[in-house]
Design goal:
Blueprint (H helix, E strand, L loop, with lengths): L9 H16 L3 E2 L2 E2 L6 E6 L3 E7 L9 E5 L2 E8 L20 E8 L4 E11 L2 E8 L12
Antiparallel strand pairs: 1-2, 3-4, 4-9, 5-6, 6-7, 8-9
C-alpha cells in the first residue's frame, strides 16, 4: 500500500482522518484488539496447577506497570510513552500507529485461583503472570482400600 510521508498527499490525509475518527469512536478492530481497549495483547492458558497470563507490552517501562488482584479480578495497569518528538513548528510527525498512553486490562479469575500465590515477571517486553490454583482444587487420586 502506497503511503506518502508528505501532508499534501490527499489520499494519505484521508487515510489519517479515517483512522483518527475510528480511534475516537473505538469502532474498528486493529492488531491490538478493538482500538485502544486491546493493549497490551494477552495470551492466557492454564494447567492443573496454575493460570499462565502473558501480556505483550514492548516499550513499557517496568516502573510504570502495576498488577493488582482484588476479589477475583486481575488488573494490569501501565503507561507507554511516545518516542517521537512533539509536533511543533520545527518537527513533524508523519505516521504514528503505535499505541501510546495509559492502559488498563481487567480479567476475571476462576474461583480456584489462589490470591496469595501470584508471581509477575517482566522480560523483553513480555509480562508473565502466574496465578497458582488452590491446593484443595488440585486433581488428586483417591486410594481404594
Amino acid at each position: 500500500m502506497y503511503r506518502s510521508l508528505f501532508p499534501r498527499d490527499l489520499f494519505a490525509e484521508m487515510d489519517r482522518l479515517q483512522r483518527d475518527v475510528q480511534q475516537a469512536f473505538d469502532l474498528s478492530p486493529t492488531i491490538r484488539g478493538f482500538a485502544r481497549n486491546g493493549f497490551p495483547a494477552l495470551n492466557v492458558g492454564s494447567t492443573p496447577e496454575a493460570l499462565e497470563i502473558y501480556a505483550f507490552a514492548p516499550g513499557v517501562e517496568p516502573s510504570t506497570l502495576e498488577v493488582n488482584l482484588e476479589r477475583g479480578l486481575l488488573t494490569i495497569l501501565g503507561e507507554r510513552k511516545s518516542a517521537l518528538p512533539e509536533a511543533d513548528d520545527k518537527a513533524a510527525v508523519h505516521i504514528n500507529e503505535r499505541f501510546e498512553g495509559a492502559f488498563r486490562r481487567v480479567m476475571t479469575l476462576p474461583d480456584d485461583a489462589d490470591p496469595d500465590a501470584v508471581d509477575a515477571k517482566l522480560r523483553d517486553g513480555v509480562l508473565h503472570i502466574t496465578v497458582r490454583r488452590r491446593a484443595s482444587a488440585q486433581p488428586r487420586r483417591i486410594a481404594i482400600q
